[in-house]
Amino acid sequence: MTGLFISFEGVDGVGKTTQVERLRDYLCGRGLTVRTTREPGGTPLGVALRRLLLEGVAKQSEDGEDGGRGEQSEARGNAQSNAQRNAQCATQSADIAHSADIAPRAEALIFAADRAQHVAEVIRPALRRGEVVVTDRYIDSSLAYQAGGRELTADEVRSLSMWATGDLLPDRTYLLDMDPRRSHARLDHSEDRMESAGDEFQRRTRQAFLDLAAADPARFVVVDAAESVDEVWQTIRADVDQLIADGYGDSRLRAAAGAIAAAATPAPVAAAPALASLIPNSADSADDAADPDDTDASESRERER
Ligand SMILES: Nc1ncnc2c1ncn2[C@@H]1O[C@H](COP(=O)(O)OP(=O)(O)OP(=O)(O)O)[C@@H](O)[C@H]1O
Ligand SMILES: Cc1cn([C@H]2C[C@H](O)[C@@H](COP(=O)(O)O)O2)c(=O)[nH]c1=O
């Protein structure tokens, strides 16, 4: 039996984390097991990768010093000898003291590595247990930021991510959309490496998200994130109620559809069985999500995009 896989997407500060928490509380309150998680950083490996991606790597001066960040001695030694080699061969090398910290392709690979670990360690096991997985960012962030923002090709980034995940896509993606200049103003921390990529980068990223949503209306729901927290939540809640009532997920979710209808309807006792009877029986289609290492697994979530 499969669980239900939901992702939240959007540019920085649109309110994803806020709505992930609302959805978790709502579904937990109805007796479902909900696993909330995020990218990058949903696993111990991911936490280390997140630090690299958001804080960047220490710049090396020509004499090999690491700018005071105290990197591990082995890494420093390697970089130092590179710096020395560069100094001897100045015509063929960039000045590493002033080079960009992470190249776009390297960045895409690190996000994909984070996602591969995340799917293997957290998402697939939870879906196999029939849980609801709610992730704060997933593959569409790579398509929007690394393809839209950094201007790698969408095909490259998609192939990389689909390989990393064994083609696992969410059942539903909520795209919280608003002008990044306004959403960034909501942030109460200093900008990280991605957030400080510039207005034009953020504009391209937002547009890429909107293009992705337009191309896959069955998976995406676009929500106006400039509305209040409550208004945004009401839109999501209405959709998730419908999603569950329509029969996504396993029998526990179908049972929950009755509970949700009961909570929302003044005459719940009569309404719940009627709703349950509308939900298709998915006993023969529901199975494990596809696993790159499990050739017998269902392909219900393996959708080519
Ligand atoms: N609809 C809203 N209206 C006004 N403020 C909001 C709204 N939603 C969230 N906020 C506030 O905006 C800030 C950012 O919200 P949140 O952390 O949920 O965004 P996010 O999209 O997860 O950000 P990030 O991309 O940096 O992880 C928080 O202070 C939050 O309370
Ligand atoms: C998954 C993913 C994320 N990003 C970017 C988007 C954000 O700027 C940061 C993550 O920070 P948050 O506070 O957790 O939102 O990383 C990306 O560029 N590509 C990705 O695949």
Automatic annotation (TrEMBL):
State if Nucleotide-binding is listed as a keyword: yes
* Gene3D superfamilies xref list: P-loop containing nucleotide triphosphate hydrolases
Name the segments for region: Disordered. Answer: 59-92, 282-305
Q: What is its EC number?
A: 2.7.4.9
Keyword entries, A-Z: ATP-binding, Kinase, Nucleotide biosynthesis, Nucleotide-binding, Transferase
User: What InterPro entries does UniProt report for this protein, alphabetically?
Assistant: P-loop_NTPase, Thymidylate_kin-like_dom, Thymidylate_kin_CS, Thymidylate_kinase
State the GO CC annotations. cytosol
Q: Which residue intervals are annotated with compositional bias (Polar residues) in the record? A: 78-92
One GO MF annotation is: ATP binding
Name the Gene Ontology biological process terms: dTDP biosynthetic process; dTTP biosynthetic process; dUDP biosynthetic process
Which residues does the record give as ATP binding sites?
Answer: 10-17
Q: Where is the composition biased (Acidic residues)?
A: 285-297
Family, similarity comment: Belongs to the thymidylate kinase family.
Protein name, entry field: Thymidylate kinase
Q: Which organism is it from?
A: Bifidobacterium jacchi
Gene name for this UniProt entry = tmk
